[in-house]
## 1
Amino acid sequence: EVQLVESGGGLVQPGGSLRLSCATSGFPFSTYAMNWVRQAPGKGLEWVSIINQPGDKTRYAESVAGRFTISRDNDKNTLYLQMNNLKPEDTAVYYCEGPGGYRGQGTQVTVSS
């Protein structure tokens, strides 16, 4: 059974940082590219970032480029998202997305003063 469990969200002030984690199981993690996506209140799903299987190639949405960093640890079957200089518009539920579009339950990120 494919499982993805996101964690690390919370309430942070504008300009602050958070590191999200996504623990995975039930599939060969190291053989799949992985994504982070997010859903802001009242909006649709927005793609945030992708990382290739070995973790040496990444891409970002224009809205987060230069502030967010995606990474992975294939030994731990875990995906990460380091988020710096957070803005109120980054407020959303963040999901990691694996094979077949599987997503976890998400982790809430709220950026507010």
Note: The first strand starts at residue 3 and ends at 7.
## 2
Amino acid sequence: QVQLVESGGGLVQAGGSLRLSCATSGRTFSDYAMGWFRQAPGKERELVAAITRGGSTDYADSVKGRFTISRDNAKNTVYLQMNSLKPEDTAVYYCNAKSIYGMDYWGKGTLVTVSS
């Protein structure tokens, strides 16, 4: 089992930037595909960005060109750099780890609020 702890959320003005971090512990980080999801009030949780064990990335259309996911296997941490933030990016952001066996693990989330 792997434990996930997100950090870096907060209040930012539209057009600003934030970097989220997700620190992991408990298992070999490099064995996991990692992702960032978000859930806005009254909406379903959605995938924002994902990175495979090999470093390939994928993004939701709504964040392409603005967000960048990366991982540091030496630090057991995955990051989400968010630029040009918009009010519609306001949500709780969750870190996800998926094992090679398909098991999903989640952090408790970090709140991002973008003011207009």
Note: The chain has a mean pLDDT of 96.
